[in-house]
## 1
Amino acid sequence: MTDFPSHDLTTAPEASKPLLEKSQAAFGRLPGLHKVMAESPQLLEGYQVLHKLFTETGFDADELTVVWQTINVEHACHYCVPAHTGIAKMMKVDDAISDALRDETALPAPKLEALRTFTLAMVRDRGNVSEAQMQAFFDAGYDHRAVLNVILALAQKVMSNYTNHVAETPVDEGMRKFAWTKATT
């Protein structure tokens, strides 16, 4: 692969510097993903905005984690699965949820499993979910807004997962203990 630039506050394009400063303030460090995205200020800003908006959807910490990790695992993102494992720990998400998502095994709560199943259908079928899939999601207690919020998360995760694939972003040091590879079937 072509070596992608990994920027810091001194090497980033001018328009990316305030965005990296925002990342530094939020995380106490510059995540590798943000350093790579900084090459395109528009991508980094879009990612940050979508991330913020998704966290404001009303999904709780468990649900946010289920949607993010379902997409990360399906996309086999070597960077985002460990990162979101660490984020889930910071958000006090039960390890049983994180482990089930990483291992692609049943989640401990039927409503969370319905969220994962619907999110997977959205990813795999590129939004062309069936009426039965939609109804199962509604029957689990979700609504039209939740459908649209899964789409919001999918847009965010495509940005990060695809960036990490093409740039082969190294996993951040603090997240390496959560290293992950997709199970072969």
## 2
Amino acid sequence: MASRKTLLIGAGVAVLAAAGVALAAQQNHEANENRIIGEHSEKDIALNQVPEAAMNAARARLASIREAELVTRKADGSTLYEIEGKDKAGKKVELFVTPDGQVLGGGNDGDEDKD
């Protein structure tokens, strides 16, 4: 039977491994964003602040919309909207949409979003 110390060390290693996986996923998400839209800054905004054309483009691709961020590209100062919602399968999806409704890209996190 394993000693209590061995069990505690094993549990600690498992926690650290899970944290490492979460950090790697976050870094991969940020790298994907930078690949699609370049270096940028983000600011949370209310959905009613997103231009109608951008919201219509997002509604065409998402079953529901949950939140939005105003994205400012560092290279040229242009703005985009990162619109987050769920697809028909219930997967969390983020879209990058221009103010005039052009979808530049996005991604499916592959996570079931239960809330």
## 3
Amino acid sequence: MSLPQTRAKRRPNDPARRQRIIEAAARVVAEHGVDALTFRAVADAAKVPLGSTTYYFADKDDLLVSTIRTIRERNEKSFHDLLQPLVAEHGLAGGLAALVEEVTVRQHPQLILEYGLYLSTLHRPALRKEIAQWRMDAVARPYCDDQTARLLGFTLEGILLQSVMEDVMFFATDVEPMLAKITDGK
């Protein structure tokens, strides 16, 4: 005689759930700021049970680190993919200037999200290590020496921060002469 089955069948594993939670966390931060990020808000945005958030992430900082890492990696790939043909067509200064225009004009909402995350680390030491890896010199480094890449990184970060803080768009023609002084050494 066999025993009756009393256990409910387990639902299929959801391998994409962790990533959906991270994406939802990014949306919550983009729409409402870092202070609005709670496990409940993220679970609602991801349409997952609240317990899923605490299953995958130990605390809010753990969730933010994963969110920052995901957005940073996506951002770096996007910048590299955009920049490569621009540099081939316009040279380094022209390519970087076109990238600045793309980001500050057509991708401005994404830029605001990214700098919101970046600036949220000021009072959260646990996040600083992750955000320290998000540097614009990495974008320029394949095209020039380390010292020039670092100077370009500082300059680009300043331009992008100004765009966010003052809600200003920068066009390639506005920034290319400045970037050319750095890349040409004049």
## 4
Amino acid sequence: MISITIKYFSELNIHELYALLQLRSEVFVVEQDCIYQDIDGKDNKALHVLGFKNNQLVAYTRIFRAGDYFEKASIGRVIVKETERTHKYGYDIMNASIQAVSDQFNEDVIKISAQKHLEPFYNNLGFIKNSEPYLEDGIPHIAMLRTQ
């Protein structure tokens, strides 16, 4: 089980910020062998959803209100540490993120840009494919929408 904390950028302490940037780099840059600019200037607008296990960050997302990233509210940078994926923490962090979009932003439509191979995972969470595949940082993605 993970403990989930939700914070705005200004509420993050230096250790949480370091941990989330380290985890994002570990998964999106190193594991996926994808050179891209992770620090994109959008973190300051995001609400950060952090999943901790034994005081270690093992799952993370960032969420945006409508208009701050996409025209709809959105969830992005969805990560579970590789060694923790067998525990299905992706569902825990996504369900918390979906709930936070509703609670914090009062939004009922969520858009994501999902890696194509994760379409079944997101389908299980109520997201429906909304585009043809496209490349984002050299990785096939699809747009998906969820309405509550």
